[in-house]
């Protein structure tokens, strides 16, 4: 009768491991057991410091197997066990990226954020992008506002971006700004429920597959709040700075504070704060009134030790310009309202942030 593997293991289970006190099979020192017609081979994997104590075990194991009916040659080898984890034999596992990465060709990333929705973050992003482009900077604008992508409308571009090879995505361009929007990847009017992993994938695709070309700055228009997009962006990519937009109201400021806190935790420097809808200037008579209060953001900036980059008035022309697809710095570059945005752009260049 031929010797079986089970018979060998049963015999070895009768032998005690002097270190663990259990049997040598249960303690895991019997390795690489091969039972063939030509002979039985196995290894006792032991602590080399205890080699002397295991010699009788090896002899007993060899004798026990030899005594089994059908046994032919028996070979038992003692080897030193390894403290290291066994090598990962899975096909060449990809090395994990080490922390945030740079986007090839993009010198710096500037995030435009707000705590609360509707405070004018997209308006600010579009005007800053156009103002920087007008100064000769090579500017990209990524609309990552998955809840309300508005850059295609503000920059007056439409249509779906082309992907000639199915891998790279060709961005759109207007007013000297290279632009891409997550909104352009979905069907117009279609409600998309973005979940964490989907968002991460979409954002990484936007960063790495869009042909941004050589840019001095890529402005990222973030969704409001402190969610997955903000976290993914800062964890996967080097974000060189963030500008936080808020209206002067307390409710907006409370949320802005949370956003600032998040960037601090993610080690993203706050370049400055912008108070939008700071004061209302009547387009008929020029009368000025503080609809949402005034100066709240300045106080916050002072408390944080961050610069207040601008107080942008609430002005009809700013809205109609954006709605019409030509931000005010493009459509009325010499107006007082456009000048405010151009001044912020100049400050950003001066600070090395754009
Ligand atoms: N200073 C301003 N004067 C007049 N209208 C403005 C001003 N800033 C923004 N708006 C208008 O307010 C509306 C909301 O602005 P915007 O879309 O830029 O806000 P947001 O913070 O990006 O909003 P969301 O939460 O959708 O991301 C738009 O219609 C815009 O044209």
From TrEMBL:
CDD domains (alphabetical): Mrp_NBP35
Molecular function, one GO term: ATP binding
Residues that coordinate or bind ATP: 115-122
UniProt keyword Isomerase, yes or no: no
MIP18 family-like domain: residues covered: 5-76
Keywords from the UniProt entry: ATP-binding, Hydrolase, Iron, Iron-sulfur, Metal-binding, Nucleotide-binding
Highest taxon of the lineage: Bacteria
HAMAP family xrefs: Mrp_NBP35
UniProt subunit comment: Homodimer.
Protein name in UniProt: Iron-sulfur cluster carrier protein
UniProt organism field: Litorisediminicola beolgyonensis
